[in-house]
Amino acid sequence: MSPKQDPVPIIDYSLLTSSTVDDRLKVVQDLGKACEDWGCFMLVNHGIPETLIEEMMDASNEFFNMTKDEKLEFEAHGVLDPIRCSTGFNPDNKNKDLLWREYLRLIVHPDFHCPHKPSGFSDLASVYVKRTRTVAMELVKGVSESLGFEASYMNQELNLDSGFQLLAINYYPSRMEFDGSRGLMPHTDHGLLTLLYENGVPGLEVLRDGKWVGMSDVPNAFAVLNSDHVEIFSNGKYKSKLHRTVVKDERTRITLVNPNGPSLNTIIGPSPRLLNDENPPHYLPMKYSEYLELQTKLIMAGKHAFDKIQLQN
Questions:
Q1: In this predicted model, what pLDDT tens digit does every residue of 53-75 receive, in sequence order?
Q2: Under CATH, to which class is 50-126+152-309 assigned?
């Protein structure tokens, strides 16, 4: 019998915002352990109303159920285009062994962008991303403290007040719509932390000790993943989390994904406060906008941007 898999760590957000010093100290320690040992965790008691999330899911479903011609208005290709939409799939595609999904990607901070339809979608998304950004920035404070810094250190060093935030909405059609493999190949995300919420249809898996582990069994929780720039800034202490999506359910799966990163003009390398003779830098500094462009180009070639910035010590 194989050994039982440890459960994915659970972090209680309400303790992170608690006025009780001992509660906050304990959850900061737990947060650091989760970031170091797992590279991910489930976030509960985050304070974002379930009704708001349900309304976002409904509005997202409505967007993807528009006609292909309606969605073509929002089609774009550049990584820094404010609105990017894949405009649909071909049900007659013979190459159905490829993992597939449809997506809408929006730059929502420092400037907010959103399609003007369906009706009410933009207003709803504006409220949602403000709430998720508040949660993400509190988590970054906790991560900063877990690394031995002041709570405000990462915010100041990475210019997070002007930080780059995306809202990526992924739509994995039901088997009735698309009878092929649905999902995303293994990858890591740019930025510091990625927040992900799913509509109750499982699919997210993370690599843990050489095995793929599901992250879908905690009600009303966000999955939070370490991203590339928390690994870079921590000089490898907190590894970026390799993850994938494999949808086996017959139902439509929708995910709301928030990558949160530094400002586009910020040059990110290992924090100088972590470096010494025993811990030299493991990554080359690079401007965040340049990393985004590089990552997009390399993904197309089946490579990773880390290949270009990792140093061999």
A1: 999 999 999 999 999 899 989 98
A2: mainly beta
